Amino acid sequence: MASLKELKGRINSVKSTQKITKAKQMVAAAKLRKAQAAAEAARPYAERLADVMGSLASKITVSENSPRLLAGTGSDQRHLLVVINTDKGLCGGLNSNVVRAALAKARALQADGKSVAFYLVGKKGRAPIRRAFPDAIIGGFDTSVVRTPGYEEAEAIANELVGLYEGGKFDIAHLVFATFKSALVQEPTEQQIIPVPAPKQAAEDNSGAVVEYEPDEEEILAELLPRYLKTQLFGALLEIAASEQGASMTAMDNATRNAGDLINKLTIQYNRSRQAAITTELIEIIAGAEAL
Questions:
Q1: pLDDT tens for each residue of 14-51
Q2: Quick check: bond before 44 cis, omega within 30?
Q3: Scanning 133, 185, 195, 222, which has the fewest C-beta atoms within 10 Å of its C-beta?
Q4: Which residues are marked as active site?
Q5: Judging by DSSP bridges, how do beta strands 172-180 and 78-84 pair with one another?
Q6: Whole-prediction pTM
Q7: Under DSSP, is residue 1 helix (H, G, I), strand (E, B) or coil?
Q8: How far is CA 264 from CA 8, 80, 258, 272, in A?
Q9: Which helix (DSSP H) or strand (DSSP E) does residue 134 occupy?
Q10: pLDDT tens readout for residues 70-103
Q11: How many of the other CB atoms lie within 10 Å of CB of 251?
């Protein structure tokens, strides 16, 4: 059984840890409001841009002169998974869930006879991917050099992906990240980003109206498609930022509660041990008095 000194030291240690987790919870809660607002504000623009792009793409015939981001390479053999994780830990199972979704997608593609490569964004979650696919990582982007990754980082990632695409490194790219639902729920999401898919709804809602473009549709798409790609990556960075704060707030709240429960248990054990020590001391005193 632990001594009174050891129990008191453990209680003080857990109390110190509880103060840290409580402080981190409050910081995450404060950051969450801003990150959530940014993620939610970006969604309507991304959705509207997707609708516009889909409307344009549904009105042209894909040919050799079409932008490669729309036409594709003509093959679907080589797949690239762009996995976006956080740079910091202490956010529960957020990163592990994203990595699990990415690995499941990779294994499903391999089962279909496709080759798989990875492009990693963020520091966390890289180790499991390296262990599972040690030779499949062809690139990555370090977001830890900035305080809050934004559109500039999304643009840099998009440019690098386009460079890899034009260099023949892959045929199809998928984006894997966490979509923020609430502080308790961050949903792993996978979507194709290269070649840019035309939304199904736009094709279904196409009324067949005759529209004249200036310049022509292909020139508009050549400008619009890279912007769409950057917007999707920017949205994913905002979603993972909000997800990180929500998951961190929840994880730190759970840690604070667990620390409180442990402090209560240790305190009860300490009081019982202290009472037992006092009782033993009284018995020894009484026994000594009787001997006299």
A1: 888 888 989 988 999 989 999 999 999 998 988 888 77
A2: no
A3: 185
A4: 91
A5: parallel
A6: 0.82
A7: coil
A8: 12, 50, 10, 12
A9: none
A10: 777 888 899 999 999 998 888 888 999 999 999 9
A11: 20
